[in-house]
Amino acid sequence: MLERALADALERADESDETALRLLDAAYEQFCRMGIRRSTMEDVARRAGVSRITAYRRFATKDALVEQVVRREFRRYFDQFLLDIQQAETAADRVVLGFASALGAIRRNPLIGGLMAVEPDVLVPSMVSDGGGTLAAVQRFVAGQLRREQQAGNVSEDVDVELVAELMTRVSASFLVTPSRVVDLDDDEQVREVARRFLVPMLRPRPGR
């Protein structure tokens, strides 16, 4: 489920269906307040002010609704990520900002971060036990960003962007899934320093780039 949500996250959602949007908003609030496991389609329909039948017409199952809510949150995250890295002047700075932005945005997200904290059995298994699908979806996004840097001449041509994206994704996922006793993830400067010391060198950026 999470893999599909991530893989499709950059696609623009159909925002013409006001009822579906109300249900998504209601589901987000419901899941943040009560968690996914304790929430029902009836709860979401009541919060959205629609009938249970209407809710099921828009989303055939609870899983389908959860997938769309998660997809929307990751799409918002990707949008914010792209805005955050625009502040950087070099490829190295974009890696540093991107890494910090990714960890911070996901951990502080009321839904995704909250579920990882209080219902890890809902999200974590889908991140690590789906044959690598979820990590592969994130890796494709990161590789795309690195490839653009390479095409712009900001990263050496001999850098294997697919492999670098894989390593960056796995480092990020590890921090998210298993809290660190060495790195304080609430300390943005410490997180950025990790990126400067260990992620940026993988790109071997050209001087002044």
Automatic annotation (TrEMBL):
InterPro entries attached to this UniProt entry: Homeodomain-like_sf, HTH-type_TetR-like_transc_reg, HTH_TetR, Tet_transcr_reg_TetR-rel_C_sf
Location of the HTH tetR-type domain: 17-77
Lineage start: Bacteria, Bacillati, Actinomycetota, Actinomycetes, Pseudonocardiales
Name the UniProt record assigns to this protein: TetR family transcriptional regulator
Top-level taxon in the UniProt lineage: Bacteria
Pfam family, one: TetR_N
Naturally occurring in which organism (per UniProt): Amycolatopsis thailandensis
DNA-binding feature ranges: 40-59
UniProt keyword annotations, A-Z: DNA-binding
GO molecular function, one term: transcription cis-regulatory region binding
